Each structure stands twice: as structure tokens, then as C-alpha cells.
Amino acid sequence: MSEDIANGAAAPAEAQQGASFSVEKIYTRDVSFESPNAPAVFNEQVQPELSMNLNQRVAQLNDSAFEVVLGVTLTCKAGDKTAYLAEVQQAGVFGLAGFDPAGLDAMLGAQCPAILYPYARSAISDLVSNGGFPPFQLQPINFDALYAEGLRQRAEQQGQADALQPGSETAGNA
Fold first, then answer.
1. Is 44 within the bounds of a domain?
2. Tell me: the pLDDT tens digits for 77-104?
3. How many domains does the chain fold into?
4. N or C end of the chain: which has fewer CB within 10 A?
5. What are the backbone angles phi and psi of residue 164, rounded to the nearest 5°?
6. What does the alpha-carbon distance between residue 20 and residue 4 come to, in Å, rounded to a whole number?
7. 5 Cα distance to chain centroid
8. What is the distance between the terminal CA atoms of the chain, rounded to a whole angstrom?
9. Is residue 2 part of a domain?
């Protein structure tokens, strides 16, 4: 039975013809916490409104090393006042070799951010608590679904751009 599990686990790597993935380093690139209306905001008796923004950057460092930076910004408003703004840029250096372009894109767009997110989540939680606000835990995120949605949007945009090209069937003269 253990052979079946080992063989099943090895199949995806074989599909990528010896692809390798490693986490070289995880680190906090930048962190910021602001509470511009403290201490008055602590006396506000309104329901806080939270909004979160995610972004990501990828930089190729050499043939097989990539830096991925996951940015998380959490904004809390109490009425028309900002209670706090917490920002974390969690980064990692990842070794990726032997992937086809689509596989590399998926690793950098979904798997690497998924590895970084728990670190960013913890940092945001600590910032909020240390800022004097009730503990807040960011919910888990399905980075595979976010990546798939990003692919769908890119394909849609590419389709629209192709449709506007002169000589294409939909943009041709009737």
C-alpha cells in the first residue's frame, strides 16, 4: 500500500520531466501599521467595516530562482474614520526548475502565494492585536481558485484584444 502512495505522489513530478521546487527563504519584506485616529477611535461605538486587498509580484532572480512577494492590506473603518491600516509584504525566494511555462506560471501564481499567506496572516493578526484592537484572523484563501480566475480574465482580455485586431473575423469589414 505504501508503494502505491509513493508512486502516486511521484507521478506529477514525472509529468514535468524532473521538475524541482524548493523554498529557499521566507522573509518579511515590508510591514506597516497605522491608526491615524487613535485614541479617539477606541471610543467609537459603530460596527467596523473591514476590507482586504491582495496583490503579488514575481521577479526572476536567475535561471531557477524567483522572488514572490505577496502583499496583504487590511483596512478597518469605523464610520467615516480609519481605525487602522495594516500592510504586510511577505516574500519568499523559491527554486523552480524543469517546469513547462504553464506549470511555472501556476507554481508562481498559486502555490508560492499559498505558502506565503500563513506568514502574512500571522503578521497581520499580530499587528492588529499589538495596535490595541480586538484580535482578527484573516480567513483562508484558495489561491488555486484565484489563479484560475486570473487565467480566465487573461484569456477573456486576450480574446477581446484579438477581436479588435484588423483582419480578424470579428473585426473585419462587412
1. yes
2. 998 899 999 999 999 999 999 999 999 9
3. 1
4. C
5. -90, -5
6. 21
7. 30
8. 64
9. no
Specify the 3-state DSSP secondary structure of 62: coil
Residue at grid coordinates 502516486: 8
pTM recorded for the entire structure: 0.79
Round to whole Å and give the CA distance between 49 and 72.
16
- Spatial neighbors of 46 by CB under 8 A, at least 6 apart, are 78, 79
The mean per-residue pLDDT over the stretch 137-156 comes to 92
Instruction: Say how far apart CA 105 and CA 100 lie, in whole Å.
Output: 9
3-state helix, strand, coil in the chain (%, to 5): 40, 35, 25
Which domain does 30 fall in, by range? Answer: 24-160
